[in-house]
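Translate sequence into structure tokens.
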Amino acid sequence: MWLTEKIAFPNPITATEEGVLALGGDLSVERLVLAYKSGIFPWYCEGEPIIWYCPPQRMVLFPNELKIAKSMQQILRKENFVVTENKAFDEVIFNCKHIIRKDDFGTWITDDMEQAYMQLHRKGIATSIEVWHFDAAQQKKVLVGGLYGVDVGNGIFCGESMFSLVSNASKVAFIHLVKNSSYRLIDCQVYNNHLASLGAREIARKDFLELLTT
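Result follows.
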């Protein structure tokens, strides 16, 4: 289904087996807010129409199921990192966009998406977690990891992307988000081994949509 200028989406349960719900539309604040509150998110590449997804299986983390490996616990105890919230949102999304990932999949964060989420942040809807490390050569803290996502309301955070310039920095950001917020559910969208190792798991779309409204 192609979207019109009207800020509306089809029923999420009508998505294809691959999770595709609709095409087109825009990335306005109003449309993005409605999308996330409805369990829908955009995911497409530069040059494509906007593709809106609501996958049949949703990767989520319930905070009480967070898994922190012993090696990670030791890293956290060393306190080599400083973690902040909403201090460098634009830098976080820039790094998420440009980081070279092991799978060489490239980025789905188009220029339009970058600008749209920066606008969501200015509206207090999108949030970032930053991880800093002191660089002795520069004699200052430098950004080495982080994540950003959307506060859907109702105690649910929808994670969008994360990055690490040094080992474990994105895990530090994710653990901070889970342990230092009042969220009852972290939406990770689609399966990811990195997040599965931290306790995230897949649930059925209908169960996720129910959680959005309860």
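Note: Helices lie at 29-37, 70-78, 89-98, 111-122, 169-179, 193-196, 205-213.
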